[in-house]
Structure formats: structure tokens, C-alpha cells
Inverse folding.
């Protein structure tokens, strides 16, 4: 760890003497033959019996080795692959010189939740996909693992002795609807600018999807709680059990003196497929399933929250939420847990690491199949799922080959006693519906940007000038880091607007 307090400019200056020396210390040919490190993981047979974090993180020794692989490219393409343009080479080189706290400072200059992003972002599709090592047919730098290491190292060194910041009583008041990654990122940025920020959360705990949607075996609650504690110390106020649009209206907020509102209410409305039998007992959305377990303690001693414990559990979908659901089902005692996905394994949107972990844990993958009907017994309990075999046709607008029924193959009957539907979510309509003059898109998202019509995410101002929005309520679906980026950009844009329109 470092004892000095170099500026961000000094920590990120590629021409700094310390950094030039690091490049000279190991010749490029020597760096490129160093194998990528392997992160320690809990044994699959053990980890499916509990909620302990599977990936154990890098040791300091591993982090130093991995950081030394980085070539410190003069034109780092990894940065362009990051949705919020983190200065990746700079934080990695600070790790290499064993300035772990400085590495975390570089990360936090752009990213509000580096310990979270290091665990849940799909680096293989973002920063790591652009690493120059790919051109050498070698494994990319483990950017996500190093991000997690730097953030965790700084947190362990933090004694929690924060000097609480109290905003000026005369500072403008800003309201935030939702405490997920976008809301937390916005709140931190606005607090740093001197505003009095209050975050309103509909649920009984702060954290949004970071708490209710992501299991602790992937993202421990202590990581999220640490970030929330930092925001409290920075002067941000939090109110739980408050539904903006119901408990408090937009007019109520204005009457209480709030001059701006950031909507980060997410996309918590689950989708279903609309097929016969979908209302049978034993079929539920992944939102309900994960919320009951992650947030409401279902299945844990001392909690009365009921939860189904199926013996044969099918999860419909191929995203991260589907992986979280099927892996949770194993931990809840399922004897057989199956992913049913209408495309192939290569087309799955879930992180490669989550698919790998699911396979290690014994999850079955029934790809190129799609449910078309559920059947039940005389008690209304689901017993059978009817699957249509699929094949891949021409690519869709996103570049993935579109699934289509393979009518040459017979339908498949699969016995099940629990089905978890994870085929996507829709934007939470509550706030848009409660403010009639707020423009929305045809998909139900809040319209932002200069066009105020279709996802103009470069600008996050809505049709009502003092209301900004970001994350899933704008994008329909977003990674954590994209939502965080929206929060930071919205804060800068709201500050600019309020500054220009001071009474």
C-alpha cells in the first residue's frame, strides 16, 4: 500500500517516471509468456450446500503476476471496451507497483462500485474482449479479477473511520427513486457536488437489484453494505418502504423542497410467455423466486418466508438471472436443476463464468428447446413441461441467429415440479404512470435525451426538465456498470441544468 497522496493525474500519467520504470522492468516478450492466473474457487460439492461466495478472489501474489502481464499499451483498446471508460492500464500498473489503495482510487474516479463490477460485469464481452492479447491468440488480462482485487484490498484496509460529511442546510435537495446501481452512483456523484441527496427505496433494504436479484454466492451483501455506508458518510440520506408514485408523488417531493428527481426504479416487472398452464402452482418468475430467498431470507433459519423446494426444477432462459435462479435451486435442495434455453450454449447472454460455475455444480443444459405448454395434476400443481425443439435461423437485429421451431422433431415431455421463468423483465411502470406529462417510449421506458423519444441515452434528461432517469428504466435492461455510468452522467447533466437555471 502507498503512504503518499498522489493526485489522480499522477496516478494515471503514462509518462510518469514510476510507470516508465515498470515498463522497462520486464521486456514485452517476457510479459506475453506469463500464463493468466487462475482464481481459487470453492469446491462444487461443498458450495451447493451454502451461500458462500464461490470465487475466492486473487491473492496479492497472483494480482502482482497478473498485473505484470499488462503491456501498458499506448492506445489501450480495453478502455474503449469499458462502458464507462475506466483507466484500466493505470489501475493495473498501480497494482503492479503494490499501491493497491491507489489502484482503487483510479477505479473510483470513474466507477462507483468497483468491487461489485469486478464480480458481476461481463468482462469477456466488454474490456477483456478488446485486450491486445487476443491478437496474439493468448488469454486476455484478467481485468475483472484485478478490479475486484484492488477494491477488496482497499476495503480491507479501510478501518471505517470516515469523517461524516454534512451538506449545507441551504444546499439544493435532490430525490432519487431507487437504490440500485444507477441510483447509488447518482447519489454519490451529487453528494460530491454538494447537494442534499435523499434516496427513496420501495423495499425494506437498500441496494435494489444488488440485494434482491443477485445471490450472495456471487455478490456478498457485505460488499453492497460497505458502499452504502460510504454514501451515508458522504451525507446521503436513505428512506426504505417508500414507493415514489404511491407513498410520495412527484408533487409531494416538490412540495417538500426537492428541486430535482432522478428515476432509477429499474425493470422489476417480470415477463411470462403466455403459454397454456403458466398459472399452475409451482411456476413463478425469477424475480419472485430470488427476492424471496435473497432479500426475504426464505430457507434460512429464523425466517418465516415460504419458498418452494422443487425436486426437479426447470429454469427458462439463458441470462445471468436464469443462472442465478438455477444455481439457487440447487442450494435449496433440488435433485435435478435444468436450464431450458431456446438458442444454443454459445448464444447464451449469461457471463461465461456463471455458465462455467453452473456446469461445475451439476446444472443440466437443455438448449435449442422452448416450452409451449405446462400440464398439472388434479390439485393444480405443475407436473409436466412440453418442449418444442428449436433450430437456429438467420441472425436477428442484434446479430444472434434467431430461434425457430424445428417441426421435424417431436415434442418433448419433461417431468417437473417447479418452473422458474426468467425470460426478461419490463420497466417498472409505476412512476411513469403517476406523472402523466412524463414522456415514455413505446417499450414503456422513460424517454430521455434530445429527441425525448427513443432511448437517447447520451442525454438523460426527461421531457420534464427537473426529472432525469437512468439504468433499466431507460434502457429496458442494462449491466451494472452501464447503470452506474448512467447515474454518473445524469448527475453531471442535472448539475449543469440546475446551475444554469438557478432562481
Amino acid at each position: 500500500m502507498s503512504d503518499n497522496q498522489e493526485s489522480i493525474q499522477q496516478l494515471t500519467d503514462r509518462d510518469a517516471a514510476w510507470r516508465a520504470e515498470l515498463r522497462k522492468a520486464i521486456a514485452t516478450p517476457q510479459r506475453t509468456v506469463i500464463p493468466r492466473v487462475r482464481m481459487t474457487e470453492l469446491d462444487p460439492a461443498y458450495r451447493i450446500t451454502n451461500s458462500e461466495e464461490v470465487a475466492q478472489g486473487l491473492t496479492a501474489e497472483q494480482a502482482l503476476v497478473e498485473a505484470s502481464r499488462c503491456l501498458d499499451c499506448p492506445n489501450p483498446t480495453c478502455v474503449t471496451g469499458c462502458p464507462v471508460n475506466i483507466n484500466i492500464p493505470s489501475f493495473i500498473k498501480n497494482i503492479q507497483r503494490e499501491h493497491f489503495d491507489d489502484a482503487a482510487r483510479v477505479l473510483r474516479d470513474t466507477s462507483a462500485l468497483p468491487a461489485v463490477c469486478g464480480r458481476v460485469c461481463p468482462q469477456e464481452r466488454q474490456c477483456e474482449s478488446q485486450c491486445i492479447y487476443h491478437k496474439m491468440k493468448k488469454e486476455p488480462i484478467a481485468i475483472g479479477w484485478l478490479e475486484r482485487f484492488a477494491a477488496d484490498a482497499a476495503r480491507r484496509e479501510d478501518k471505517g473511520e470516515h469523517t461524516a460529511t454534512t451538506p449545507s442546510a441551504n444546499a439544493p435537495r435532490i430525490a432519487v427513486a431507487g437504490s440500485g446501481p444507477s441510483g447509488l452512483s447518482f447519489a454519490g456523484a451529487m453528494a460530491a457536488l454538494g447537494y442534499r441527496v435523499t434516496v427513496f427505496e420501495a423495499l425494506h433494504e437498500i441496494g435494489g437489484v444488488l440485494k434482491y436479484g443477485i445471490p450472495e454466492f456471487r455478490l456478498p451483501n457485505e460488499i453492497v453494505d460497505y458502499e452504502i455506508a460510504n454514501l451515508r458518510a458522504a451525507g446521503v440520506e436513505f428512506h426504505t418502504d417508500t414507493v415514489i408514485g404511491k407513498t410520495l408523488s412527484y408533487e409531494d417531493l416538490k412540495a417538500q423542497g426537492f428541486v430535482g428527481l432522478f428515476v432509477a426504479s429499474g425493470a422489476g416487472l417480470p415477463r411470462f410467455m403466455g403459454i397454456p398452464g403458466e398459472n399452475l402452482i409451482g411456476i413463478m418468475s425469477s424475480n419472485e423466486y430470488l427476492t424471496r430467498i435473497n432479500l426475504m431470507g426464505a430457507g434460512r433459519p429464523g425466517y418465516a418466508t415460504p419458498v418452494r423446494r422443487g425436486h426437479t426444477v426447470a429454469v427458462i432462459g439463458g441470462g445471468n438471472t436464469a443462472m442465478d435462479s438455477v444455481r439457487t435451486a440447487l442450494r435449496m435442495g433440488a435433485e435435478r436443476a435444468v436450464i431450458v434455453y431456446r438458442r444454443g450454449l454459445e448464444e447464451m447472454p449469461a457471463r461465461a463464468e456463471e455458465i462455467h460455475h453452473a456446469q461445475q455444480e451439476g446444472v443440466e443444459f437443455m438448449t435449442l428447446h422452448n416450452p409451449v405448454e405446462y400440464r398439472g395434476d388434479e390439485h393444480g400443481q405443475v407436473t409436466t413441461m412440453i418442449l418444442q425443439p428449436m433450430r437456429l435461423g438467420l441472425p436477428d437485429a442484434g446479430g444472434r441467429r434467431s430461434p425457430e421451431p424445428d417441426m421435424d422433431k417431436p415434442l418433448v415431455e419433461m417431468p417437473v415440479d417447479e418452473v422458474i421463468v426468467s425470460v426478461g423483465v419490463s420497466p417498472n411502470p409505476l412512476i411513469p404512470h403517476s406523472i402523466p406529462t412524463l414522456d415514455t417510449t413505446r417499450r414503456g421506458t422513460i424517454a430521455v435525451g434530445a429527441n425525448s423519444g427513443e432511448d437517447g441515452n447520451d442525454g438523460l434528461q426527461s421531457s420534464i426538465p427537473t426529472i432525469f432517469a437512468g439504468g433499466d428504466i431507460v434502457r429496458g435492461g442494462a449491466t451494472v456498470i452501464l447503470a452506474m455510468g448512467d447515474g454518473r452522467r445524469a448527475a453531471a447533466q442535472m448539475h449543469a441544468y440546475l446551475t444554469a437555471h438557478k432562481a
In short: The first helix runs from residue 8 to 12. The CA atoms of residues 203 and 275 lie 31 Å apart.
